[in-house]
Specification:
The protein is 23% helix and 30% strand. It has 2 helices and 19 strands. The protein starts with a helix and ends with a helix.
Length: 262
């Protein structure tokens, strides 16, 4: 009877984590470039009371054994990098990657971070930066007298300047892709960093070697589906309720046993 108490408790803990993940997804439904997460679970060890295939006393093989499961455990909270919806903004510095890949961002300590959020801005020096002021890599500086910024599908950045009849190319945006983007470490601020699990970034020109292309004047919204998340939230809540009922039933059965008299 005690076994069922602990087993049901693992179910309640697992569903609490599930609700935590779903809540974070819903909270970021309007976060540009956000990728939803999914909690994955595995069953725990089994207590084998009789092994399958053993031979009984009269020499007959038992077709099925007796194994009692001991609950559930979380094994991963995985980021799902499916494409989010595109929203037109007509802002020259709003960019989306159509397909696979990440923008490269230089952090203050010189390390590299990666993002799908392309709502870029200019700092006081004319550099293209994130909302937190981190510059993209390779660094691109827009001249102060530029009247128009154009970014092509392959990442080429050109500007129109007074007195010029044709745009001048001032740099190119490169993007990085990973063999296992789910292995990236989320750092907050729409940023990810490389890990051993993600593999090393393969950087290059957009639209080549499996990388996506860049579209100017759009932003990529969160890939969270509110209806799906609400359905998952209801399922998680009901599963939590059922596990709590199992704890209650086990407690009542123990109480009944303790009240037995000779």
């Amino acid at each position: 009877m005690i076994r069922s108490l602990f087993t049901a408790a693992t179910g309640m803990q697992a569903q609490q984590l599930n609700v935590d993940v779903i809540s974070n997804n819903i909270a970021n439904v309007n976060t540009v470039g956000f990728k939803r997460s999914r909690a994955d679970f595995q069953d725990l060890l089994y207590q084998t009371l009789r092994a399958p295939g053993v031979t009984s006393g009269d020499g007959i093989q038992v077709p099925a054994g007796i194994q009692v499961g001991l609950g559930v455990k979380p094994v991963a909270v995985q980021k799902l990098f499916t494409q989010g919806d595109f929203v037109a903004t007509n802002n020259d510095l709003d960019l989306v990657i159509e397909g696979d890949g990440f923008f490269q961002i230089t952090m203050p300590d010189g390390t590299m971070a990666y993002t799908r959020a392309g709502a870029f801005k200019l700092d006081k020096d004319g550099r293209i930066v994130t909302s937190d002021g981190y510059p993209i890599e390779p660094a691109i500086t827009i001249p102060s007298d530029a009247t128009k910024v154009s970014i092509t599908y392959d990442g080429s950045v050109s500007v129109m300047q007074p007195g010029s009849v044709a745009p001048s190319q001032i740099g190119s945006i490169e993007i990085a892709r990973f063999i296992n983007p789910a292995g990236l470490q989320a750092q907050g601020k729409n940023l990810f960093t490389e890990t051993d699990s993600s593999g090393a970034p393969v950087t290059g020109v957009p639209g080549t070697e499996g990388r996506g292309t860049i579209n100017q004047g759009f932003i990529e919204m969160s890939n969270v589906n509110v209806v799906e998340e609400l359905a998952n939230l209801i399922i998680a809540q009901r599963a939590f309720d059922l596990n709590s009922k199992a704890v209650q039933a086990s407690d009542e059965m123990l109480q009944t046993s303790s009240n037995l008299k000779r």
